[in-house]
Amino acid sequence: MVEAEPRSIAIVGGGVAGLQALHSLLQLPRVEKIVLFEKSDTIGGVWRENYFGYGAQVKRDQYSFPELGPAGLDLYPTGAQLKAHCHAYCETFGLWPYIRLSTDVQHLTRRAGPSGFRVAWKRASDAESEEEDFDFVVMAVGNFSKPFIPELNHSHFMGRILHSSELVDPEMLQNHHVVVVGYGKSALDCFILASKFASSATLVARRPAWILPQRFLGIPLEYLASTRWFAHVVFPPYYNASRLRRWIGVFLWPLQALLWWILVPILWFHFRLPRAMWPSHSLAWQLWHGHSVSICDPAPLKEALRRGARMLRGQLLGLTGTGCIIGTESAASSGGEAPVLLTADVVVFATGYQESWSKLFDEETLKALDPHGEGPELYKLILPDLPGLAFLGRILTTCDIVTSFVQAQWLQALLAHQIPRPAPAVRQPTQKSYREWRRSFAPVVGHTMVAVPRVFDYLDELMDDLQVWPSGRDRFLGLFQPLTAQTLLAAMARARATASPVQGRRVVPVA
């Protein structure tokens, strides 16, 4: 059965993916009502508010709205600039009238008759919740929803416990003994901040991970990590690759192994961290198992270590009245040596976020969405098997804002019936092939996402459905150019200008 074009659409989440979905779906001619629900008092998602000095770890060309451009952003945009960028996006495209701020979506119930959902929502100022029916729901809550702090007995701790997102003022660290728990981008930023203001600063990481420098041997990182040629040379083919490309991948495997063996020591040399922080897994493993890789400038990190801040490999076991109990690898391997006790009166947990989408559905719907316990099972990483529902922005890449832009264009075309909704005979084999491909390098994951280096193949997959085919010139230059918002937009515009109505080519409007 072909779903009718929806007349009413609800979007959950006011981050970049939600705003892009709103902008795209407003262009559907038959939509009579569209509402974006945002629990907070303003839009921006992770850029709304976070720790002091937070910002993007990639350049503005890779992290700006394609339709808006990077004007007003620093080379590496600050969080405040990206928040303003989101507001400018809403102003430019007239999105504010469709956004309900301070409105928490509490539950989504599948309607018995027509496809769609009944949305239960509640304003922060109201005592009672309300219900509203929508033909289609877009989940755009992303991967950074609910701050996560491990459960520890801290009843005797006399200091202060913070999640990294709460560290909004460096005065909170002034003249304190600070322990930062974690090893991602936020942990490193908070550690560097603490080294400047605190009496002592210690970073504790249970599983140290690989960090990438902004420049590799003087070359901007995007010319390596965000280019097609690099992905083709050092990573296995995507799940839908041709048999020829798969065979080429087999023959390239010895070269790939050699390249990783050469690259990793050079990478480590950029930071020259304590030997104890050498990761126990390879960089290739980290990338292909869906773990994010932090990108930062090595200089502030090395300066923090010169100021006397230190890094410790170990696990936070508990808190005393005046410090942290750390179980280190050396303690565990020395036959029962006592754990390390660190003096601390501020503990910052840079331990990431938990998903929040699953709490909105009943058990039966949740089982249909997540049959394998690995996150929602999604066709093209957008559509679940349930009608009337889509997910946007669940993919972690170095250019999330560009990825969700193409996702939003694809979803708009699907709902307008300009590309066919896949039948089960098409959808299920595709989902199975993707799942088997992902499991071949990441047997256990917490999210359904595309591996970072293969984002080009994923975007090609969506743009092929949109019948946006780059010219030979764009294909050649695309091998060496980093993926940026403007290069993508320019390639789409050129494809639009040369499209043949006879061939049925179509480019979704982008402005």
UniProtKB/TrEMBL annotation:
Entry annotated with the keyword Transmembrane: yes
Molecular-function GO terms, alphabetical: monooxygenase activity
Record's keyword terms, sorted: FAD, Flavoprotein, Membrane, NADP, Oxidoreductase, Transmembrane, Transmembrane helix
Residue stretches spanning the membrane: 247-269
InterPro entries: FAD/NAD-bd_sf, Flavin_mOase, Flavin_mOase-like, FMO-like
Gene3D superfamilies: FAD/NAD(P)-binding domain (3.50.50.60)
Family: Belongs to the FMO family.
Descriptive protein name: Flavin-containing monooxygenase
Origin organism lineage: Eukaryota, Sar, Alveolata, Dinophyceae, Suessiales
